[in-house]
Amino acid sequence: MSGPHKIRLMMKSERELAKRRFRRQKNQNMLAKPGIHDCVIVLDHLKPTYNVGKIFRSAESFGIREIHLIGIDFFDPASSMGAFKWVPAHFHKNFFHCYTKLITDRYTPFVLEPGNGKVLPKTNLPKKSAFIFGHEEYGISFEPDLFPEVHRMSIPQFGKTQSLNVSIAASIIMYEYASQHAKF
Fold it and tell me: Which residue stretches of the chain are H helix?
């Protein structure tokens, strides 16, 4: 067996292994305790490959309270290096359900949009901040103008691309939040 068929079988096999890892660690995640900071991360329809796990890894390192996942049924936790077991995860079908929970819990939600809103280093981040990160290609799944409590923010960039990998952007945001609200 060779060619595209073999590749599809290998991909299917890897996906099944990822799903098994996810189920095993999701059961352990039910015992996860909130991080020391009041900040939460919202992942809006990200691809189930490497970025979600990497964001869990950074969230655990920075003491993030919890992560909300919208439209993400599973992801490969391998890149989290075990952090998925330690950071509480909340799964939502759509943004509105997650948004309602965040507002009820008195969080200030932020979306990142290159060139729009306040620049991160000049933004005083509220203690109860929620940072929303959208799909790697398509961005967020909602129109921010329809949700008046959502604030726009950007990470200053000096190159022409004006685009950062989502796990890198999330790590930068978490670092800035932790530096403003550090609990050493």
Answer: 4-29, 50-62, 95-104, 166-180
- Residue partners of 157: CB distance under 8 A and separation at least 6: 114, 163, 164
pLDDT of amino acid 172: 97
Average pLDDT over residues 142-157: 94
183 vs 157: CA distance, rounded Å: 28
Beta strand segments in 36-142, E = 40-44, 66-70, 89-92, 108-112, 118-119, 129-134
Mean pLDDT of the 31-58 span = 94
CATH of domain 4-180: 3.40.1280.10
- Spell out the residues 6+ positions from residue 99 whose beta carbon is closer than 8 angstroms to its own: 109, 142, 147, 150
| Gap between the Cα atoms of 64 and 58, Å rounded | 9
3-state secondary structure of 114: coil
The pLDDT assigned to 148 comes to 92
How many percent of the chain have pLDDT more than 70? Answer: 93
